């Protein structure tokens, strides 16, 4: 993590190929000489590669390939996801800033454009946090029963989160949800369709955490 900063060109863009000879041109890539050599692996059929958050990577298919990818989010990196969305929205706002005054629904249009790029907007991100929070609260409320059933079912033992894990995720969710609720771009949206309202959800999460820690 952080190595990608050394790979950016003078305009702040990352290269398509981190092994390209052109990266040696210091007039274009002024910090490339500070970067570490890339780690190269060969993934065989049936193998899974886990790439941690913020690790820049590239892939070459050595032959015809079917690749299945899944983006993984939990309490450890949900704040990174929130920062990413804020950066994406800011980029959209810069691009269409000249239309801010003549366009009545400029803020909504920015959300739509961001969603077309990221697959999610701020209101959907709120609902994403809500679903995660409700799941973790359910674990806390039924924790003892879940743990008991997990001991009797090997498959459940693998998939069931523990109480401490649920509390950890809830604490991270509260932090991100607090930031989202205070965000000026979020507050400019029509939030009446959100159920429960952000303030009520935050109160519920904090109460669930306090109860679990008693």
Automatic annotation (TrEMBL):
Q: Which residues form the JmjC domain?
A: 1-89
GO BP term, example: positive regulation of translational termination
Q: Which domain of life is it from?
A: Eukaryota
User: Entry's Gene3D superfamilies?
Assistant: Cupin
Q: Which GO terms describe its molecular function?
A: 2-oxoglutarate-dependent dioxygenase activity; sequence-specific DNA binding
Per the record, what are the reactions this protein catalyses?
L-lysyl-[protein] + 2-oxoglutarate + O2 = 4-hydroxy-L-lysyl-[protein] + succinate + CO2
The cross-references to SUPFAM superfamilies, in alphabetical order and at most eight, read: Clavaminate synthase-like (SSF51197)
Name of this protein: Jumonji domain-containing protein 4
């Amino acid at each position: 993590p952080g190595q990608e900063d050394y790979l950016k060109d003078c305009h702040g863009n990352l290269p398509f190929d981190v092994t390209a000879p052109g990266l040696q041109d210091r007039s274009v890539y002024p910090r490339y000489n500070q970067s570490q050599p890339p780690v190269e692996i060969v993934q065989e059929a049936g193998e899974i590669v886990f790439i941690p958050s913020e690790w820049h990577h590239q892939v070459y298919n050595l032959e015809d390939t079917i690749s299945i990818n899944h983006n993984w989010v939990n309490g450890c990196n949900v704040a990174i996801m929130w920062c990413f969305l804020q950066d994406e929205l800011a980029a959209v706002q810069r691009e269409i800033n000249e239309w801010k005054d003549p366009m009545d629904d400029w803020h909504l249009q920015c959300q739509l454009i961001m969603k077309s790029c990221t697959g999610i907007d701020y209101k959907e991100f709120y609902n994403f946090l809500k679903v995660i929070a409700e799941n973790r609260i359910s674990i806390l409320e039924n924790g003892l029963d879940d743990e008991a059933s997990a001991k009797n079912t090997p498959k459940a033992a693998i998939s069931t989160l523990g109480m401490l894990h649920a509390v950890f995720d809830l604490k991270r969710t509260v932090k991100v949800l607090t930031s989202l609720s205070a965000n000026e771009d979020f507050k400019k949206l029509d939030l009446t369709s959100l159920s429960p309202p952000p303030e009520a959800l935050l109160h519920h999460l904090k109460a669930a955490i306090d109860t679990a820690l008693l």
